[in-house]
Amino acid sequence: MTVNPLIEIEGLRVLFRGDDGRTTHAVDSVDLSVRNGATLGLVGESGCGKSVTSLAIMGLLSKQSSEVSGSIRFDGFDLLKTSDQTLRDLRGNRLAMIFQEPMTSLNPSFTIGDQIIETIVRHRGGSQRSARQRAIDLLRRVHIPSPEKRIDDYPHKLSGGMRQRVMIAMALACDPRLLIADEPTTALDVTLQAQILELMRELKAESGAAIILITHDLGVVAEVCDEVAVMYAGEIVERADVDDLFTAPQHPYTVGLIGSIPRLDRRTMHLATIEGMVPNMTNPPTGCRFAARCPFVSDACRKAPPPLVEVSPGHWSRCIKAPLERLVS
Amino acid sequence: MATLLEVEHLVKHFVAERSVFGRPTAFVKAVDGVSFQVEAGETLALVGESGCGKSTVSRLVLRLIEPDAGRIRFDGRDLLSLDAEQLRAFRRKAQIIFQDPYASLNPRMTVSQILSEPLALHDLVPPADRRARVEELLRLVGLEPRFARRYPHEFSGGQRQRIAIARALAVEPKLIICDEPVSALDVSIRSQILNLLRDLQDRLGLSYIFVSHDLAVVKHIADRVAVMNLGGIVETASTDALFASPRHPYSRALLSAIPVPKPQAKRGRMLLQGEMPSALNPPSGCRFHTRCPHAIEVCRTDVPHLHADPAGHATACHRASELPPGDTIVPSDGGFSPTLEKLVAAFSGGMEGPALSGVGTVGASPPAGI
């Protein structure tokens, strides 16, 4: 879909096999691509498959319990076919990830310096001393005050916002080409969130890395993303440029999401709600997966799975009613 | 409007460290001289960053923890002088809904038991009629009466929060404290709960104290807002006045940081530098001066007090009158395009009826993924 993409995902499918013999279709035929220097927002509610998609890219899903198929092309490799050794060389190096919980993703028994230096020495080699200097520079780059002292602190001495900065510093240690950020600001206060988002914007401008930002917060998406993919029940239901998505969404689910956010500009008595539940993913419905909750549903929606079609240049929707303008004119 | 709750100079210091002999040596000044009022039928929001004391205030008001000093009057009665029996009677009039609907419901009790317990405890409904009342409560919060026999694990997060709301409503309270009631929920579920809270307020004349760090939600639900920083209120005003033009530099930083779902939103963002100081050792003078871009000498030495203008907009800042106007602080999301406006209306159109009456049943089919 994009010219000269840095990462191109085609037909990604992830199945989890449960002990009871049931299969959960967590991610189903996902196509995504991100070009150099762009930020893609991956949006959806709990359980829609956005985090599983990111774990599949990083090769972090357990081989025993999951089946991953499709292709993920990154930097000349197909990440689903490369050896574990190659993956280990890529992770933390050209491919980096920031997790949601800065409280649990740092090792409490090592100083933050140890943890950043480990990454640098593993991928770049060199002496402890030069790695330490680089770690201090990285901490300074993410605006940690007096980094020469802070580098010897253990994670418990840092606040949530500081820990998230350390995570970002660690992810940036080897100048990654692609940074995956899974809900990087969800655990933080709004003032810290603003600082971290500003930092991510700054870093993108400096290094030209591509970012995949996973979030359920449409406000955050509007602030930092260039493109957005909306996921529902394991599928991408809409994909568009950020401006197009917020001005003219083409999937009813996206309309519902946008309508359900409280607005700053005026007072609405009632917010839009999306009634019902996400379908059971051990046995997904045959037709459109959103049909049971969609107010615009018709019989045709339930018959066959709708394809992802290009409604206008660069704007894709998995809804047979698109363009939705027709529904209200 | 009658004043339902009056809080004056509320203080709570937690002991952080003790000497070997058990004498307290360090205190966390969680709440340090907080005063506010809640009118009947009104929603007051308490906002601020984690650790500012907003949750402590909400627990003090219910006497779930005892204050060190101050006065709380509820319906004209002094709360702090109540004995155990009177306190129990008071709890009938004031209830709380917690943030995490997974932790606040007893997993070993059925929904029916959870909802009948307060009825039995306060001897409100004779045993023979309790089943009918439970069904009525479930309908009130938009759940099907047949759910009464189920256990909490059979419900989704949004449904559990509805059960927690039903439990709070069981005793027909006048005041409900909502401590981050929607923070743990997905966006679409969040809007259902917010709509429900508002319907219930309109129908039952409830007052809410709404504790939240999500300012867009606060803007939607609250009539008045009190902004807290490190144990004190720095600004209080009607929601419209505060969002139109916040006056305290801390409120400005907070409000300017709201992410809005509109790319290229106009904003005059004020990024705070540095970290929130520790409540164990708060800064002298104005507690915000270490992070305030407008701080001058007097801010470091003198504690500013809340001063209200005739409209009731109160600010605790030495420099409030000298600051640049604040009307461009809150980011503008510019509204929807006319087409999107119609689409959103059409999207919620089919659901309008049940949502308004509050008896719309959610989750008619059993929850997925269990």
What does this protein structure show overall?
The complex is a heterodimer of chains A (329) and B (370). Chain A is an alpha/beta fold and 329 residues long. In chain A, 33% of the residues lie in helices and 23% in strands. Chain A is built from twelve helices and twelve strands. In chain A, the strands form two sheets. Chain A has an eight-stranded mixed β-sheet with strand order 6-7-8-3-9-10-12-11, sandwiched between helices. A four-stranded antiparallel β-sheet of chain A has the order 2-1-4-5, covered by helices on one side. In chain A, helix 3 crosses helix 4 (128-141) and helix 4 packs across helix 6. The two termini of chain A are 30 Å apart. In chain A, 50% of the residues are buried. The model of chain A has no long low-confidence stretch (mean pLDDT 89). The model of chain B is unreliable at 351-370 (pLDDT under 50). In chain B, helix 3 (111-121) packs across helix 4 (130-140) and helix 5 (157-169) packs parallel to helix 6 (187-204). Helices cover 31% and strands 21% of the residues of chain B. In chain B, strand 4 (69-74) and strand 5 (77-78) form a beta hairpin. The longest helix of chain B has 18 residues, at 187-204. Chain B is α/β, with parallel strands linked by helices and 370 residues long.
